[in-house]
Structure formats: structure tokens, C-alpha cells
Design goal:
This protein is mostly helical. The protein has 9 helices and no strands.
Amino acid sequence: MDRADFVARFGGVFEHSAWIAERAFDRAAPPSRLDVDWLHAVLSQEFRAATDDERLAVLRAHPDLAGRLAIAGVLTEDSLQEQAGAGLDRLTEVEFARFTDLNTRYHARFGFPFIIAVKGLTKQEILHVFENRIHHTRPEELAAACHEVEKIARLRVEAMDFSGM
């Protein structure tokens, strides 16, 4: 697999951040047989090695949960499927209002959207975590958001078909 193919295939693992796949390829040429563990490790390594501003840009590339991008229908396919899987595309008016309020307060407090790997969680569980994490300090929340971004990346890699690679 050449660099262009690698980036085309894995550039979206970290939301709107193909530079992570570019750097991963440049630093560690893919083995003859790709696997989930290797791919997630090299991509996460590049995310962790990035500058604070670059990591913050990755966080800011994520959409708000049940936010305006979801309503407008302009989420990435991965984000759309992830949010729909958690029922975030089927909120009641009260739930939508709660998410909107939390999104607004969270973004004002931390400067990036609330990020959580939603796979396997219900909208009630997500709201519970959201309501707890909004009280974190900024350093605590930066660490939590970066951890969640890596979990999301892992889930996205696990969902890929590695046959023939």
C-alpha cells in the first residue's frame, strides 16, 4: 500500500485529521499485513506526539452530539452512524434541549465539543457522563477528550475490513 492509498483509507480514522495518517505512514511504513492493533497504535502514537494545538484541532474537528451539524445532515458518515447507533438522531424535544444546553455550556467552558465514544451507550448514559464531565477542570477534560478520541479511532479501525491487505 502506498502513502496515497494509506491516507485515503485511514485518513478519516481521526475526525477530519488526515495528517495523522500521513505522519503515521511516514514514520512507520505499513507491514505486509495490516491489522487493527498495529494501525491503531501507529495512528494513536502520532496523535499523542502532536503539538497541543494540533491535538486541540482534532478535538475541535468533532461535531457536537445531537448538535447543529447533525440536524443539518452534514456529519461524516462515521459520526452519523455512531450518533444514530446511540439514538441521538431520535431525541425527544426535552432531550434535544438538554443536549443543546450542555453542548453550549461545555463548549464555552472548555473550547471544544464534548467527545465520548458513543458505541454501546444509550442516550441516557451519554447524558449522565456529559453532566458529570462538564464539572471537570480543563486539564482533566482535555485528557478525557483525548482518551475518548483514541477510543473512537479504535472502534473505527475495528469496523474496517482488513481482508486482502
